[in-house]
User: What shape does this take?
Amino acid sequence: MMNIIIKNEEQIEGIRKSSKLAGEVLLYIDGFVKEGVSTNYLDQLIHNYIVERGGIPATMNYNGFPKSCCISLNEIICHGIPSDDVILKNGDILNIDITTILYGYYGDTSKMYIVGQTSEKADKLIAATKHCLNLGIQQVRPGNYLGNIGHVISRYAISQGYSVVYEYCGHGVGIEFHEEPQVDHAARKNSGPKLKQGMIFTIEPMINEGKPRVKVDESDGWTARTIDNKLSAQFEHTILVTEKGYEVLTDVSNEYPIT
Assistant: This one.
């Protein structure tokens, strides 16, 4: 039986503040993502930004992860480890994934960045992935089935010639880094539990240009790549189920009106 935490008003407000900080990190780092910069330099900036605002980077030392964020380039699907040896170059696409702890509460978000002039196929993949996220968010309302999030995401991604990573998924968040429910991005229609007001979880589709499978680097046990070395993209938000719809807690650009 799933133990899905229905958050109370005090918890929601704490998670809202942490999520706002996480979203602000992604806006802040945007101006530093450029050719010639190392991913470790970006990680250090992110670390300092979070700590100076009273937060803690949730990934630091999480199950042994050594850095304050995940930075995943090109064919890396997720969990890329920032390094002085990874230097951004023209044409790169990258996901930066931020999870903050603020006064004990968690917020989790990620987005794609581009370096210089990217290829048309990369641009199309990024746009399709963002649309997948938006489609998933539109399914969030009390009484709807959780599985319909993954159903609409996978249906659209496949219609565009892409595949959906099924070995990683979204998750409940707020009190802990990872909570129930598991939010699959490929799911059967009307499957899973019904959504209830007060649930908070991430939607974070990982969409691949080629095959959906993942291979994890044996050298670090974290870096997850596409099995065919083709491109991957991801966007992520933390979502609250409201009385009638949703609130995107990590949206600091007012892109998603509260429903």
In short: The CA atoms of residues 23 and 250 lie 5 Å apart. The domain at 9-248 is CATH 3.90.230.10 (Creatine Amidinohydrolase). The chain has one domain: 9-248. The chain has a mean pLDDT of 97.
